[in-house]
Amino acid sequence: MSVDKIALIVGASGIVGSNLAQELLSTNWTVYGLARRPPQHLAGLHPVAADLLDPASLDAALAAVNPTHVFITTWMRQDTEVENIRVNSALVRNILTALSPKKTVQHVALVTGLKHYLGPFEAYAKGGTLPPTPFREELPRLEIENFYYAQEDEVYAAAARDGYTWSIHRPHTIIGKAVGNLMNMGTTLAVYGSICKETGRPFQWPGSEAQWNGLSDVTDARVIAKQLAWAATTEAAHNEAFNIVNGDYFRWSWLWPRLAAWFGVEARGFDGTVHPLEEQMAEDAAVWQKLASRHQLTVPDLSQLASAWHTDLDLGRPLEVMTDMSKSRKLGFHVYQPTEESFIDLFAQLRQDHIIP
Question: 3-state DSSP helix/strand/coil percent for the chain, to nearest 5?
């Protein structure tokens, strides 16, 4: 990779952003990582601290940054979809407006997700007619307000104004390491499994019958990082939207006992009732704090690791959800990752880094 590739990763402290930074640095990009609290530990990453909702903050932070490629991998959760649209379209618009006078940007990549097909959180997979699975990129937008659509429209408008290419990336649930992330099923299940081991509780399936028995897929953070890098530098992939998942399908009824076995706990499957993790883990903050103290773990605050609300949304859906990868496969993106290994690799890394016991 030529060293004239200069990346600005917006959301560099998140699951996708941090994995993307490692991927690009390993192939000799110059990489700037923007966040309110950008990572300081990643060798070679140039941290950029800024508030995406403050244009003056962005202008100051980016004064000496002249990226060729911009990767937008973050969002800010709000109480309603109206607020999600207002805030999350603004953060995209603000970053692209701040960069506009530089005239250095060649490509902008935006990470959204399968809510493009399922609808926003407050109407998640409910009501109306949802498209058939596997989801394909050519499906039309749902007739419902969705902040993903608003973010896409900001990218399209800025690309038309400034003359660069774009790509949109739609992962399913992302499995990878990040602390303090809003949507983090892998780490949530790692913490839950550790608490079950500590307390002698069973590893109880928290979700729906449809998810337990139906086909599913997920996205390894390392895989989406590779797709982002590929799309940014592959002409045939420019001005296209892409699904991105590991490439295998699985049933949670098959995977759940395997995850339980890694923690050495009893697996319990769907028993006719949904058992949300938010309820199961509601009183576990003190348990985790004691566990963290005894094992000298690096993050004693349960809320910084577990995002039970998001895992409950994913695993509680009343339908099976899976994704078609034909579009990028035909264009030459052939990365594949077995999903069981995605979880096990993450669990092992969290243990090695003293995040779980």
Answer: 45, 15, 40
Query: Minimal CA–CA distance to 23: which of 182, 183, 186, 227?
Result: 227
In the chain the beta strands, taken as DSSP E runs, fall at 6-10, 30-35, 46-49, 69-72, 107-111, 165-171, 174-175, 203-204, 215-216, 219-220, 240-244, 250-251, 267-268
Convert the pLDDT of each residue in 116-167 to its tens digit.
999 886 665 555 567 888 999 999 999 889 999 999 999 999 999 999 999 9
Answer yes or no: is pLDDT of 2 > 70.
Answer: no
- DSSP character at residue 135: B
Residues 57-67: tens digit of each pLDDT: 999 999 999 99
- Tokens 């579009």, residue? 327
Count other Cβ atoms within 10 Å, centred on residue 195.
Answer: 22
CA distances for 50 relative to 34, 144, 181, 211, angstroms: 7, 32, 18, 39
8 A C-beta contact, residue 237 and residue 167: yes
CA 178, CA 346: separation in Å to the nearest integer? 10
- Overall pTM surpassing 0.90 (yes/no): yes
Which structure tokens are listed for 58? Answer: 């962005």
Just list the catalytic residues.
Answer: 115, 148
Query: CB within 8 A of 140, min separation 6: which ones?
Result: none
Q: How far are the Cα atoms of 44, 95, 174, 194, 267 from residue 101, in angstroms, in the given order?
A: 26, 12, 34, 50, 56
**Cα 55–chain centre separation:** 25
Of 36-50, 157-171, 232-246, which range is least confident?
A: 36-50
